[in-house]
Each structure stands twice: as C-alpha cells, then as structure tokens.
Description:
Mean pLDDT: 87
Low-confidence stretches: 1-74, 76-81
Radius of gyration: 27 Å
Oligomer: single chain
Strand content: 15-25%
Amino acid sequence: SFWALRLVLTPSLAAMIDAGFCLAGAASWQIVSSLFRKPPAEQPAPPKGSPWGRRSAQPWSPLKAMSPPTHLRRADGVDGEKTPGLSGEATLCPEPADFSKVGAVGRELDRAKYVGLLRRLIAQSKYLQNNSRLGIVPEEKRAAKIVMEELAPYSKEQGGPLIIEELEYKQGRSNLKIVYPGTTSKTVAFVGSHLDVVPADPSTWDHDPFELTELDGKLYGRGTTDCLGHVALLTRFLCELGRAKPALKRTVVVCFIAGEEGDDFGLGVDEVVRCGKLEEVKNGPVYWVDSADSQPCCGTSGMLSWSLKCSGRLFHSGFPNKGINSIELAMEACNYIQTRFYEDFPPLPEEAAYQFAVGSNMKPTQIECAKGSLNQICPETTVSGDIRMSPFYEVEDVKDAIDRYVKELNESDLELLPTKGTWSKFVLDDEVTTQPTELRRGLVELKWQGDLQEFKLYAGIAVSLVSEGHKALVQACRETFSVVKPFSVNGSLPLVKMMQKQGFDIQLCGFGVMSVYHGVNEYCTFEDMRKAYEVVLRMVSLLETTTAS
C-alpha cells in the first residue's frame, strides 16, 4: 500500500508497483535529454594519448567513449501546464466551505458508529492478509460484506439513494462501487481505499493485530492506518449521505478495491477501470485515499527492481591474470551503469517544484557471491538493487536505457572497464589456456524483477496543481487544520499514474499515521479520522459551490 512504504515490494514488482507512493501527466514522446539538462561546462582536453574526447567535467575515463546521447521521453507538466510548485495557499473558493451545500449530513463523525464498524473490519483482517510470495491470498469479500451490511439501510433495494455494486472479477476478491446520484454530470470520487492488508506477526505486537484495541486515544490493529480505517471513514460518510439525502449537484462515487497489497492484476482497480466501471468519474476530481499524515500528497516516485549477475573465471588467487574476478567485475559494472544512468536521468527543476527530497536514483542494495575458498578468485557475483524514478521521466525509457547499457558493456565496453592493478583482467590474454566450458571474457547479465507492464503500474505521479480537485483538497485541509503543507514522497503507489494517463484527475490524500504503515503495532487515531471526515465534507461543499446547476 502506501509508499510502498511501499519501501518493500514483491519481486515481481509489487514486485508498488507498488511507487505504491502513479501518473505524471501527459507524456511527451520525443524529447531529447539534452534539452532539459544544464549546459555542459567547458571541457578540458583529454589526457595525452587518449583517443577519446570528454562529455563531462568529471575526471577522464575511457568509459566516456560510449554510445551517443540517449534520446528520452520526459513527461511534461500535467495537461501541459507550467509547473507552479507546491503551495498551501491553493484556493478553489474565495469563501470558506459552506456546509449548507451538503444539507443535513452530520457535521461530525459519529465515534461509536465509526469505531464499531472499524472493529468489525479489523476482526476480519486475519483473512484479509495479502502476500503472494508467501502464498497468502486475501478474501476481500469478507470486508465487502461488512461494508454492504452497514450501507444496506440506505441502498436502492431498501428505498434509499445509494447504488451499491459488488465487482468480483475473481471469486472471493470483491471490489465495491457505491454511487450517490447528483443532478448533473459532474462528479467527485473517492478511490484507492483497499480491503486487503499486509501480513502481521502477532508475536511481535503488543496487542492482537487482528482485534481492535483502544488505548490512550489510539486504535490499534492491522489495517487501521492502511487502509481499513479509511474504508470505515468513507463508509460512514456514505451512510450520512444515505440518511440525509442532500440534493447534490455532483454525483459522489466511492470505490473500495481489492488486491492493492500484492502483485494482483486483473482483479482490482485495474480491472474496474478496464471494464469501464469508473468512466463517469473523469467528470471531476478523483481522490485516492491511501496515504497518511493528513496533508495533500502531490507526487510519488516509480520503482524498478533489478539484479546484475556477473560471471568470471574461477582460478587460484595467486594468479589473478588467469582468472576473471566476478566481484571486481560487479563493482565496475555497477559503476559503469550508474554513471551512465545519472548522465541520462539528471535532476530536473520540476522535482524541486514538487519538493521531492531526491531525484531519480539507481543503487545496489544487496550483493552475494559464489561460496568458495579465500584463495580462489570468485567466478560469480550477483548485485541487486532498485531504481526510484521521479514522475517526470518515463518508465519505458529507463528500462530501455539500462538494457542498452548492459548490452553495450558486454559487446564493446568490457575492455574499457578499469581493473585493479596490473594483473586483474575482465578479458583474458590469448596465452591463457581455458577449458571449453570456461569464460574467456567476463559476462554481465541483467534481470528485471518484473516486466514493463508491472513497472508502469507503479510509475510515479505528479498530480495536477491547477485542477479544481487539488485546490479543493488544499483549501479543505487549510480550513480544517489551519496550516497545510503539501508534500511529495519518494515511495510508490500502484495504478495511480495509469489512471491519470487515462484522463482521471488523480489527487492523493490520507489520514493514517505514516510511521506505522506496514509496521508493528499499527494504529490510527479517532481524532485524525474525525478531522478527515471534516476534510471530506469541506471538499464536497467547496466543489458543490463551484458547480453550475
């Protein structure tokens, strides 16, 4: 779920996706990377005897004699707008939210009803755990049943206004779509709150993770922050709409989703969108309610996981000239790939405008090598890591670039890699005798932990800062909390960029506690959820004010 924070994903990408903390606006399909880099500094002459010129101000290296500059696509500003930067002063209406626009809907979240509903949901969380790597498959239908029972008195079937539709694309894996009809084609939607949770180990918790515990103002239990607390919040909001029956101009749509916490495709919101079940919500803002800390989240990063297998030649360590040291090859290959990555995907001004802490980055995070004696040159080393991409680069460009770096390294650049001392070799001299099955030339093999489709599902997003949805969210938060601080995060969220590219005005918000996302002793507070309810009321009221009859 959330920021994957989403900091850990399944190997097959969600393997975020998650991201998901997906869509960074309309894509510009052919923008050369040089157009958005700083002008290069004046280059000094190459060292004596070097046949190569230089492309940067870094110390000279033969690695600079590589392929031509990469042609990259970069996502433009959302809807082509010039990036204005984050601001807590964004405003939809000159006057504060007018609650009369939502009629007799309750102005406060009913504590007893909210906690009672959340208690029933948490009691099912043991069966909502999701981790496909461990063979743990959730039964979201259990949570969907509880929500439908809560909403039943206000459903069309019982004479109420709510249109409730269970969308089940795989047995037991329910999504729920609930509609409160308005009088115009304009909409406001709340999507992204999911019915599955990450696994919890009861032995590491101070409280039973599968039972709601109230203590010192905190509500403990797996899913309280991520994301059953949000499910309960929006369900109670829908109950109030159903009870009060306000004459809204905008149709309110809520979609609770399945399969957000795992690498589940074709059964959650991706399938809901593919089947056209959310097409109408393109007529208004879509609030993805699965983040934290009660502030507008305006950007997330994408994520790609990779491993690099480096193969050499096993030999006695006393003769380094007759072996190929896979550990040294892995070190230099990573340096080669990272150097080219940072040249092709440099920091961008948009990242600063959205207040990302860091730009796009690639780094190793794990390394392992073949077991053997200390007096043997290691024949095989695997380095694994991830790439975090700002939403202003396209995922396919990143993957294509890394694929090309590795291809060119194996085909022509291996001899250019610096070696350690005089005797270390990545390509053996002709006089060295080898067996038919042994390598004479080091080999670098790239393996992606997921495919392009999965990586695109977790692509980063930069929300539109000029849309009515963003302005309503910021104003509602400011009126509720007095101070609002929009932010961006380098974690990932699944699916959101995909939806943005399909025309949805995705905005990110959430009211859980960031520090306990996916953590031990996860909790939310009723006070946070009480204020969250007020934010929702204010957003709907502000949007109603600006909607023509």
